[in-house]
Amino acid sequence: MNIMKFGGTSVGSAERIKDVVRLTFSYPGRKMAVLSAMSGTTNNLLEISDYLTKRNTDAANDKINLLEKKYKQLADKLFFSEDIRNRSYSLLREHFTYIRSFTQDLFTVNEMKCVVAQGELLSTALFELYCRESGFNAVLLPALNFMRIDREQEPDQFYIKENLNREMDKYPEASFFITQGFICRNAFGEIDNLKRGGSDYTASLVGVALNASSIQIWTDIDGFHDNDPRFVENTHAIAELSFDEAAELAYFGAKILHPSTILPAKVAGIPVIIKNTLNPAAAGSTITDKASGKGIKAIAAKDGITAIRVKSGRMLLAYGFMRKVFEIFEIYKTPIDMITTSEISVSLTIDDTSRLSRIIADLKHYGTVETDNEQTIISAVGEGISDDSEAARLVFTALAGIPVRMISYGGSRHNISILIPSSFKSRALNALSSILFNH
Ligand code: ADP
Ligand code: ASP
Ligand code: MG
């Protein structure tokens, strides 16, 4: 069994869907396609939700009409038989009637999750119809029947495995399955999701549940690049990465993978392969437990970071001070990314600021508190680079002239992280590429 996840661009038009269907069916053996929403749809559904939250029904309706029109045009291009095209029209009508039903109701975050889920439900339904029209046998398995997160928002791997296998056992003859990425149920059985970009995470959870031979992430670029191609020209695909390298890069902002994708695959020892739907012949990137090469492999950047400095009220960081500080973040369920300490103060960074004011109020019991927002963590990643003094020297040479707020070195053997104001991000990424990779 191979898992093939196709992102938004890969299913973003009639032509792309046709290509992807051909591509999956030319791939040998049993497989499961995990599909994202068509590119732009999740953003559109969030915009609609935003209007509905603000009770701006006219604007919501305008957006809903526009989106429906876009899908109708897609159906006209995708299907050639009248019967299937009519089926696609009634399918679209169902989904859009459902979305419109929220213009009359109270709209909370729960309703928003139901609206946002329509993106993946639409793409998979149209994809399955196209397979049917083209004479390919495909079984659509609803992710809402087996993907589940628990009270801590963590995937319930036992539930997923049991229920996915039970669903699949209903089709012993089938060799091609389709399911939705991103969407799931929560501990209360309500519709929920795995956060933005979560289809990658679905692919890896499904891959582990089925003990797949590979988890393939098919996207719009020919592999994991050595720097963010949206900010740096002449970046290059990396042929091989270790699980640890890819996990650090994804966690520290490389958009190509949802931050949680790698861990389940690493634990199960299943290779993650990144491939380009627009250029399937390109080798792509293979992520396994094997470390290869030397030095820094890639750079990633994570935006939207807030740095918090707590200066101890009394002299010296007496023992117990750190525990009290960290306990506050634990109480407010806010993960910390970077930490540095001095004699009398500790600095740390967070990206979830939803409970920041309460965190600051509690921290003030232990000292003075300063915050800096609009910060970016730049991470240089490569197996064993913390043992390589040359790697650190090159990073600091590249960052000359850039105001550095924090440095984290040695926390992981694979990562050097630096916190800088976001306004310097592009300059830092480009300087690092030119010094480290000579581009
Ligand atoms: P999908 O819709 O297939 O999930 P995403 O947009 O989520 O695709 O991820 C692919 C995009 O990630 C690329 O088009 C690229 O712009 C961006 N990206 C950021 N960092 C990297 C990187 N290190 N390597 C490759 N792509 C990256
Ligand atoms: N459609 C979702 C998003 O845009 C999930 C994904 O594409 O992975 O975030
Ligand atoms: Mg993505």
Summary tags:
VC0802-like, binds adenosine-5'-diphosphate, six-stranded antiparallel sheet, binds magnesium ion, 439 residues, 14 helices, 16 strands, alpha/beta, globular, binds aspartic acid, eight-stranded mixed sheet, Carbamate kinase
What does this entry show, briefly?
With 439 residues, this protein is of the alpha/beta class. It has 14 helices and 16 strands. It folds into 2 domains: 2-220, Carbamate kinase (3-Layer(aba) Sandwich), CATH 3.40.1160; 298-437, VC0802-like, CATH 3.30.2130.
Which small-molecule ligands are present, each listed once? adenosine-5'-diphosphate, aspartic acid, magnesium ion
**Order of strands in the sheet with most strands:** 3-4-2-1-7-9-10-8
H-E order: EHEHHHHHEHEEEHEEHHEEEHEEHEHEEH
At the third CATH level, what is the topology name of the largest domain?
Answer: Carbamate kinase
- Over the alpha carbons, how many angstroms does the gyration radius reach? 23 Å
Q: What is the CATH class designation of the largest domain?
A: Alpha Beta
Percent strand equals 15-25%
Number of strands: 16
The percent of residues in helical segments reads 25-40%
Largest sheet at a glance?
8 strands, mixed
Structural class: alpha/beta
Outline type: globular
Tally of domains: 2
Task: Provide an overview of this structure.
The chain is an alpha/beta fold and 439 residues long. The protein folds into two domains: 2-220, Carbamate kinase (3-Layer(aba) Sandwich); 298-437, 2-Layer Sandwich (VC0802-like), CATH 3.30.2130.10. It is built from 14 helices and 16 strands. It has helices at residues 14-26, 41-53, 57-78, 82-101, 109-116, 118-133, 157-169, 199-209, 243-251, 262-268, 321-331, 356-363, 389-398, 425-437; strands at residues 2-6, 31-35, 139-141, 176-180, 183-185, 191-193, 214-219, 240-242, 272-276, 285-288, 298-312, 339-341, 345-350, 367-381, 406-409, 415-421. The strands form three sheets. The chain has an eight-stranded mixed β-sheet with strand order 3-4-2-1-7-9-10-8, sandwiched between helices. Helix 7 (157-169) links the parallel strand 3 and strand 4 (176-180). The two termini are 39 Å apart. The model has no long low-confidence stretch (mean pLDDT 95). It binds adenosine-5'-diphosphate, aspartic acid and magnesium ion. Adenosine-5'-diphosphate is lined by residues 7-10, 36, 197, 219-221, 224-225, 228-230, 254-256, 298.
